[in-house]
Amino acid sequence: MISNLLIITTGGTIDKIYFDDKSDYQVGEPQISQILNAMCVAFDFDVNALMRKDSLHIDDHDRELIRDAIAATDARHVLVTHGTDSMIATAKVLAELEGRTIVLTGALHPARFRDSDAVFNIGCAIGAVQSLPPGVYIAMNGKIWDPTKVRKNVEANRFEALA
Of 3, 108, 153, 157, which sits with the fewest C-beta atoms within 10 Å of its C-beta? Predict the structure, then answer.
């Protein structure tokens, strides 16, 4: 059971806002605080809004920033919200951090959309970060994945085990 959870936000679809006039999506403010407060969670959490990027634009330098932000804290339970396109690459970099349970999650549809999977994925990630042993995991599509054994199937718009 966690008493305090560190949440690192990086952007991605989970935080995207649709601008109808421009027919454009842009990464907006992190949504996770509003989601967790609405769910009346029974633990404290701190949000570090590290960046607001589409994961297609997250590069190795950004991954080092995420890793360094986690390494600089005493937090043993960390949730990272991240875009799904490069989530696996970031998870592999975070595997260097020992003695922590780190769970990455995101959404295939913006959290502000009625049919978003964001709340469901965040809930799965919260359960995972509390119950799993130290390591790095991905919580997507109702499953907890080992980042070395999963891929994003872009055509089916879901995560699935590597063949």
Answer: 3
Give the residue from 58, 129, 67 showing the smallest Cα distance to 98.
67
Give all domains of the chain, ordered by start, each with its CATH number: 4-161 (3.40.50.1170)
Global pTM?
Answer: 0.89
List the end-to-end C-alpha distance of the chain, in Å, as a whole number.
34
> Which pLDDT band holds residue 90 (cuts at 50, 70, 90)?
very high
Task: Give tens-digit pLDDT for 37-75.
Answer: 888 888 889 999 999 888 889 999 999 999 999 999 999
Do 158 and 138 form a contact (C-beta atoms < 8 A)?
A: no
Indicate the SS3 state at residue 28.
Answer: coil
Catalytic residues: 13
DSSP state of 37: H
